[in-house]
Amino acid sequence: MERIRAIYSEWDQPTRMVLIVSMDLKMQIERHQLMIQIEHLSKSFGDLRVLEDVSIHIPKGKIHGLIGHSGVGKSTLLRCINGLEKYDSGNLIVDGINIKELTETEARKFKRSVGMIFQNFSLLNRLSVYENIALPMRCWKYGKNAIDKRVKELLELVEISDKINVRQHELSGGQKQRVAIARALAMNPKIKFCYVMRLHLHYIQKLPVQ
């Protein structure tokens, strides 16, 4: 495992967000191999300033973590990066794409390249495990055979093939988490975001990191 080179604080205590970056960050930046480049990003909800002058550089091919107290803006920052939330000022470039300049059609295409594992998993009660994982591909009009193949591959990856037709209320918390991981990986996303997850990260680590 790589040793940590640096820890950047974006806010002082007690509302502190910390970005952990890998040891070769400087080298990656010098080679312009950045996946995420954030410059002086700010975001407010009414009078509440959630993000203020945040600058972060994340190189390609690495795993990073945002650490901070509840309410410091970790989720808001992730939502800005994946295009679910608009920001007030600054620049946000993901894989060479300026998020703020995207049209509605371009933004929809961009979101296809981002996998998100939500804190509460956000599974649909009325759907089976198979249908929850297949949902993103069905929304993008994938063929039935392609969907079936991909879903079964992912079920095997997260080791719950025996739960293929089960509804979420029949699953344990850990099993729901695995379904959420599989669904997030369904579209082969370039970037994978996940909230604090104490279990099953090894399934994500099996995959190539872009």
Describe the protein.
There is one protein chain. It is globular and about 50 Å long. The chain has a 4-stranded antiparallel beta sheet with strand order 4-3-6-7. A 3-stranded antiparallel beta sheet has the order 1-2-5, with no helix packed on it. It has a two-stranded parallel ribbon with strand order 8-9. By secondary structure, it is of the alpha+beta class. The longest helix is centred in the last third of the chain and has 14 residues, at 144-157. The two termini are 17 Å apart. A hairpin with a 7-residue loop joins strand 1 (4-9) and strand 2. Helix 4 (129-139) packs across helix 5 and helix 5 packs across helix 6 (173-185). It folds into 2 domains: 4-106, Rossmann fold (3-Layer(aba) Sandwich); 129-205, no CATH class. The chain has helices at residues 25-30, 74-81, 104-111, 129-139, 144-157, 173-185, 201-205; strands at 4-9, 17-22, 34-45, 48-59, 65-68, 89-94, 97-98, 114-117, 191-194. Residues 1-25 and 27-31 have low confidence and may be disordered.
Overview in brief:
With 210 residues, the protein is α+β, with helices and mostly antiparallel strands. The chain has helices at 25-30, 74-81, 104-111, 129-139, 144-157, 173-185, 201-205; strands spanning 4-9, 17-22, 34-45, 48-59, 65-68, 89-94, 97-98, 114-117, 191-194.
List the helices and strands and how they pair.
Layout (H helix, E strand, L loop, with lengths): L3 E6 L7 E6 L2 H6 L3 E12 L2 E12 L5 E4 L5 H8 L7 E6 L2 E2 L5 H8 L2 E4 L11 H11 L4 H14 L15 H13 L5 E4 L6 H5 L5
Parallel strand pairs: 8-9
Antiparallel strand pairs: 1-2, 2-5, 3-4, 3-6, 6-7
Helix pairs in contact: 4-5, 4-6, 5-6
